[in-house]
TrEMBL record:
<protein>
    <submittedName>
        <fullName>Uncharacterized protein</fullName>
    </submittedName>
</protein>
<dbReference type="InterPro" id="IPR011990">
    <property type="entry name" value="TPR-like_helical_dom_sf"/>
</dbReference>
<dbReference type="GO" id="GO:0099518">
    <property type="term" value="P:vesicle cytoskeletal trafficking"/>
</dbReference>
<dbReference type="InterPro" id="IPR039494">
    <property type="entry name" value="F8A"/>
</dbReference>
<dbReference type="GO" id="GO:0005769">
    <property type="term" value="C:early endosome"/>
</dbReference>
Length: 301
């Protein structure tokens, strides 16, 4: 019954003269259709989302930016709820969640593009961060990195608040690292360091700048840029932290997994490093361990 009514509304749009009144009437019909479904029912998430998507397209046609954004975000979140529900039940049944996920991400893209064109960078960044979080949740790490990088660029371009910028940067680094694109992560961090001045005016902001330096240190380590790591560590950290990075570089260079593991455990047991930073250290150690094991296996053949 739902799909029959959905098709009827679409067909009426194609037959009638496409004036503003036609699209406004169709938007009202799609909205009414959405209300016939229970948006709290997991089996009807996708249906409500589809109706809101139809409504959104009507508002796009009449260039009502506010209603386009509102319905796009509503549709996006419902599509993602449908995808998440099916993903939780069975990640392996990709057909059950990939389509609603793609539809939801497309709706987020539409909403953020409208907001950006309408001169609302703060709201655009908030939506980009939300979209990146979802891509990360579904392990689309490279896509998530791209989304967070777009957010970083907008924050820098429009001189937005530091919390928004650093939230975008840190998540961008995490996602690119998970996608094995250390080069892209390092590039983002260096661009941010070139653009903003390290002049914190509060303990919280001071910590954010320190975390940015820590991320760069980890990325230099993971990129095997040992000479640059030594120089950067001495210039950026106190003696204890600098020595930790330098020792990690030496252990990595010598493929000394046991020593590196002990050093990573020190970061885990320290209150100085954040959970995300410890994860990056551990990821570096794990990748090096696999690389060494693969090399020994090849020699044994």
């Amino acid at each position: 019954m739902f799909y029959k009514r959905f098709d009827e509304i679409n067909t009426s749009l194609n037959k009638l003269i496409k004036g503003n009144k036609t699209f406004t009437d169709a938007a009202a019909q799609f909205e009414e259709l959405a209300r016939t479904q229970d948006e709290e029912n997991p089996f009807e998430y996708g249906l409500v989302a589809l109706a809101k998507f139809g409504e959104m397209q009507c508002w796009q046609k009449v260039k009502d930016k506010q209603k386009t954004v509102r319905t796009a975000v509503k549709a996006a979140r419902l599509f993602i709820k449908a995808a998440t529900y099916n993903y939780t039940i069975s990640k392996n049944l990709r057909d059950t969640w990939s389509d609603p996920l793609a539809d939801g991400l497309q709706c987020y893209k539409i909403a953020s593009e409208v907001l950006k064109s309408d001169g609302k960078p703060n709201l655009t960044v908030v939506l980009l961060i939300e979209r990146g979080r979802i891509e990360k949740q579904f392990e689309l790490f490279h896509y998530a990195g791209n989304t967070y990088e777009e957010s970083v660029k907008l924050c820098l371009e429009k001189n937005l608040t530091l919390p928004l910028l650093f939230d975008s940067v840190f998540n961008c680094v995490d996602c690119y690292s998970r996608a094995d694109r250390i080069d892209l992560a390092l590039s983002v961090v260096e661009k941010v360091q070139q653009k903003i001045q390290d002049t914190p005016n509060s303990p919280h902001v001071k910590r954010l700048f320190l975390d940015l330096k820590i991320f760069k240190g980890i990325l230099l380590l993971s990129s095997f840029k040992f000479e640059e790591l030594v120089e950067f560590s001495k210039a950026s950290f106190d003696e204890n932290v600098a020595n930790l990075f330098i020792k990690m570089g030496e252990a990595t260079k010598g493929n000394q997994i046991v020593i590196l593991d002990n050093l990573v455990n020190q970061t885990r047991n320290s209150a100085f490093f954040t959970e995300m930073e410890v994860d990056l250290f551990n990821r570096h150690k794990t990748l090096l361990e696999k690389s060494v094991e693969a090399a020994y296996a090849e020699l044994a053949q």
